[in-house]
Structure formats: C-alpha cells, structure tokens
Amino acid sequence: MISERGSSPFHPGELEVQHRAGVGDGIRRRAQVAIRKEMPEQHRDFFANLGYVFVGSADRDGLPSASVLTGPTGFLSSPDPGRLLVRACPSKDDPLSDNLVVGAHLGLLGLDLTNRRRNRLNGRVASADAEGFEVHVHQSFGNCPKYIQVRQNITSDQFSSHQRPRVEFKQLDEALKRVIQNADTFFVASCIRTQNGEPDTYDCDISHRGGRPGFVLVGDREITVPDFSGNLYYNTLGNFSVHPYAALLIIDFLTGDLVHIRGRVEILWSDPRVASYSGAQWAWRVYIEDGYFAPSASIRSGPEVEFSPFTSTTGLWRNE
C-alpha cells in the first residue's frame, strides 16, 4: 500500500494483482472508506490491550524483515488518532534494531490470537530512543479473521536470562524444516520503494498467513506457500509483483522458538500443482538468502488450538 493516500490507497502492483484476480471496483470503493489516514477509536483501544505486535521493516537496500515486539498491556498506546507509541525495543541482533530510524516506514500488525481480531497500521517513525518509538499513522485498516487459529494463555520470555543465542543459517537443516512444516501460522513482511521519491526508503507491510500444519512446502533452500483468498486487497502479492523480496517469521507457539527467513520471491501464477490444492488461488516461493533461529525468543501459548473454519476447508501439497 502507498504511504500517503491519494485517489486510491493501492499502488500499481496491488492493482495489477487485483485485476488478475478479477476484483471489481466495489472492493476499491470500499477500501477508500475502510483504509483510513488515522486510527479510529476502536483500533486505538485494540492496540492498547495487546501484549505483542508484529512489525515489518526494511533496510536501505530494500530487504524486508519481520519482527515481533512484546510488553505488558499498555506498552502500545495512541495519544491521538494520528500516532501510535510503542514502549518496547527490539533486541540488538533483530534486524529491526538497525532499521528503526527516524523517517523509516513500518508496517504493524495487531493480532489478538485469542479471538481472531486483527488490525493493520502503516506509518513512519517520528522518533526513537532507548525506551521505544513513535509512529505517525499513514494508513489504518482492519482485516478479516480468515485462517487465524485461536490460541490461549499467550506469554512471552522477553526478559528471560536463560535465552540461548540465535543461530544464523543459509539453508534449512532437518530441525528447522520440522518447525516450519509443523506451523499453522506465520507472518510475512514485504515492501516497495516509497512513491514520493525519497532515496533508500521503502513502504513496509506485514501480514498473517495461516493454514493446516504442512501448508508450507519446505526444501533445503526454498519455501513454497499457497495463497488463499483474503480481503482481496492483495497487499503482499502486490508488493511482490513490484519488489520481489520477503521476510518470513515462523513461531513455534509451544516453545517460543522463532525462525526468521529472508529471500527473493517468485510468484507462481500457473503452477499446475495449485489447481489441486483446495482453497489456493496461486502460490509463491521464497528462495532463501539468509535466516536465523532464535530459541525462546518469542511469544508462546498453550497446546490447545482452535482452527479457523476457513483453514479447515484448505488442502495440502500433494505428490511431494
């Protein structure tokens, strides 16, 4: 999505994918209303009650990263509709630590895993210090609850003194593959160069993806993801069509272990395997360039999972 709304909240890449999907003008007209320049009161209250938030950022070369920040209830607050305050900082080895500078454009996803409610916010960093940062809102909008699995008893080991160091990798070993293959949820960050001509600056976005365990197809150096129909905005695929790079954040909710992957994206518009994949329109593939595994570095939940009824109608990869 573009950082400043003009006649349309969508950039050419999003519009191209919408056209390919047969999305009519009605969706775009509704988006003109639904995608706001400021946060409505219900969104401000929603963020203020969260204990975690997902953040998409990018470096000066346009490589996106996906992060999760945690804190006590109230660590997110909105003093007025145009601002969100985040009283948390990423760890020094999180890519967000380097990307979090004044003027940077971020995508934030507020997601309550206990009830499937989610709201998105895109904005620009107005200030940052050792306590956190402030985002000036460019876009605020809700998302449908499709493919979100419900989890309870969400906790964080953010302040654990026993956290082990992260491990970097260029390809997936068997242990990493198991984490990804068992996942029913992950988060994807994408970006495009800003539309206002600022050098080395990228508009960023982060989105949720969900499916049955095994919905992500995993190889040593690549990951393939089916793309299910959501709100029909096609923010992520639209970004990929213009700037084909992604960051994936996969969380093992039982252990709090975190896998972060970055790489180049190929959109599989006509892969014949997708035709037999229930619920999938297309697929996209990430060719892994780098990643890291961070043990006990993220949120965790209890073992019970309530799958979305939409998730239950989707398929799995066949003949692999």
UniProtKB/TrEMBL annotation:
Looking up InterPro entries in the UniProt record yields:
Split_barrel_FMN-bd (IPR012349)
| Name of this protein | Flavin-nucleotide-binding protein
